[in-house]
Amino acid sequence: MLSLLRRITQEVTAAQSLSAALDIIVRRVRRAMRAEVCSIYLVDTNTQEYVLMATRGLNADMAGNISLKADEGLVSLVGRRAEPVNLEDAHIHPSFHYLKGTGEERYRSFLGVPIIHHRQVLGVLVVQHEDKRRFDEGEEAFLITLSAQLAGVIAHAEATGAITNLSPNAIPSGSDFRYKGIPGSSGVAIGRGVVVFPPADLDVIPDRISTDPEEDIQDFYQALDAVRQDIRRASNRISQHLSADEKALFDVYLKILDDNSIAGEVVRKIQEGNWAQGALRQVIQAHIQQFNRMDDPYLRERASDLRDLGRRILSHLQEKAPNLSERFSEPSIIIGEELTASMLGEIPIDKIKGLVSVMGSGNSHVAILARAMGIPTVMGALDLPYAQLDKVDLIVDGYLGKVYTYPSEALIENYQQIVDEERQLEEEYETLKDLPCETLDGRRLSLYVNTGLSADIARSLDRGAEGIGLYRTEVPFMVRDRFPTEAEQVVIYRQQLEGFAPAPVTVRTLDIGGDKALPYFPINEANPFLGWRGIRVTLDHLEIFMAQIRAMIKASAGLHNLKIMLPMISNVAEVEEALALIRRAYAEVKEEGYDVKMPQVGVMIEIPAAVYQVNELAELVDFLSVGSNDLTQYLLAVDRNNPRVADLYNSFHPSVLRALYSIVDQVRDEGVGLSVCGEMAGDPMGAILLMAMGYDVLSMSSTSLPKVKAVIRNISMGQAQAMLDEVMKLSHAEAVTQTMTRLMREANIERLIRPSKTNNVD
């Protein structure tokens, strides 16, 4: 059964159009269940009617031409209940409604299951028999399982406008196609899309119109020949270590490469208009699907051989392709299945207008980086047909998490007004640069910045930052192909310390693991967020930890503005061990003759266990800094990078607010510094609540700083505390944000956060 489900799903995924995919479903399900009828009804999003889209057993001519109202018939009953309906005799059910012309009158038994994607009913899958009999539990379970697997495929096809042709270069008719994602970084971007993808990964290669088919064909044949040579060299190099049977594998590879049918298919796809890489992906995937459908296990295994060869050819094609940075003649909107920091690092910053990532959430590191650079970003746009959007006009709405493709002139004009209003707000922010961040009644709040790149220094100082609340040392580790030496780290940290001297600079020790990986130090775990990360890694590798601490202290020579922060602390023993090592490193550096002072040491409160040991931790260290991103993630048991549960990740969840308030309460009289360095600190709504709780230092991205300062300077501490009192009584995160939005509007400060027209565009 599992094999059958897999094969049906693979066939549907490989279909070139929505109608073809639906036809595969009804044909294969009818045969698999030995049913006399199988039909698919999809919901028309405009009318909410259930339209018969495909059928085997009923009159196929009626597909696309007849429908059931939202409250009419058994199909709509399945949709309304969002659960299966299994009937021995459908005709006697009070909801039965006969669709004239379908030939349905002779079929008595009925089993309908909903097709659900992200809690939304997309349609209903139905099987029927002439005789009166109830479908058994196994048949019902099979249909439920299949509909769950197919829901994503159908949702993706419908997201393109339910067009009947999903071929690579087809342009949808109409305009203003809207896709919903998750706000990643506020702002609006209007421009053309450029699709980016990781190297040598066939699955993510987009389709793109070839600018020179003849050159593409020539490049393809050169890549093909290069792979042949690679395989022959590999065969010769290790032939003496292989048996005759094992050596035959190389011959199989060469035979596949010499198969003119595959090469010919790629060439034809190029001649039809697709570029070489897209044509290769189409052909290789089509053949892989064929192998996967075969019953013979040996032949099915050939699918992996073909995939391997496809990647080899692709890597040679990509060697000839222009560098990523060369593809940008003008500022563009970058689109990818899963954008990474390394991808962004290859693109000149002045060429990035906006970002759209199919995967990830608003608290993915790419989104955090985008906020730091002030780039409008949408994350988690799961249904976006990203591979088809190269050189397509787009609008990215980072406020509401929406992406529009093929926007109309009217929509562009509306969003251009928002861009113009954003520019005016930026000019207002500019006047605040040298003014203190204090409330109308004189309460002072210190605004620091989170940094990771040397370029952040000038940008942060230009926006009036008073210090660095979090310097992410993993960033310079991630852009190298090895661990940086102690001497290299001294230079890196000195830049940050000098740039802000005499203001304090809080340097976090290496925080890798979870979703932050070093290419040269892979950590493969089943559950990385509960695994080996942060302080756990560095205490297990003293050579890494000691080199880093020594480098930090050396870099502070003569400046004396260093603060060291330890991440992912879950118990007192970790802090005691780390402090002993820091003191040892300080003594060693001092002995070497450096003019240094013992730096202040603090810990991050980002694990629930630390929340309940705040008092004990405060007795050991000089300051505490709450990492609201991870604290929210761990309190709510939500992976912040998983778009499927991203809507559950909310820093304004009552449990998170109560934990944050509890931390302040526990250390109020301890004389220890207390700050927040997560993304919540850079949200003006969050900043108001945190200030009201008693946090006196907030650290954020440099682009968030002017907004937070503008809001704080326009309210009193009394107003902020009244807002906090009101929301702390609430039991829903949505109620908190709605209440805060209303209170900020009444206080006339919402206008300082985002352009007013963002409330009117849809």
From TrEMBL:
Its cofactor is Mg(2+). Its EC number is 2.7.3.9. It catalyses: L-histidyl-[protein] + phosphoenolpyruvate = N(pros)-phospho-L-histidyl-[protein] + pyruvate. One of its GO terms (biological process) is phosphoenolpyruvate-dependent sugar phosphotransferase system. Residues 17-164 form the GAF domain. SUPFAM superfamilies: Enzyme I of the PEP:sugar phosphotransferase system HPr-binding (sub)domain, GAF domain-like, Phosphoenolpyruvate/pyruvate domain, Phosphohistidine domain. InterPro entries: GAF, GAF-like_dom_sf, PEP-util_enz_mobile_dom, PEP-utilizing_PTS_enzyme, PEP_util_C, PEP_util_CS, Phosphohistidine_dom_sf, PTS_EI-like. It comes from the Bacteria. The keyword Transferase applies. It is found in: Cytoplasm. Keywords: Coiled coil, Cytoplasm, Kinase, Magnesium, Metal-binding, Phosphotransferase system, Sugar transport, Transferase, Transport. Residues 408-435 form a coiled coil. GO terms for molecular function: kinase activity; metal ion binding; phosphoenolpyruvate-protein phosphotransferase activity. The keyword Cell cycle does not apply. GO terms for cellular component: cytoplasm. Its main location: cytoplasm. Belongs to the PEP-utilizing enzyme family. PANTHER family: PHOSPHOENOLPYRUVATE-DEPENDENT PHOSPHOTRANSFERASE SYSTEM, PHOSPHOENOLPYRUVATE-PROTEIN PHOSPHOTRANSFERASE. This is phosphoenolpyruvate--protein phosphotransferase. It comes from Marinomonas alcarazii. The lineage of its organism: Bacteria, Pseudomonadati, Pseudomonadota, Gammaproteobacteria, Oceanospirillales.
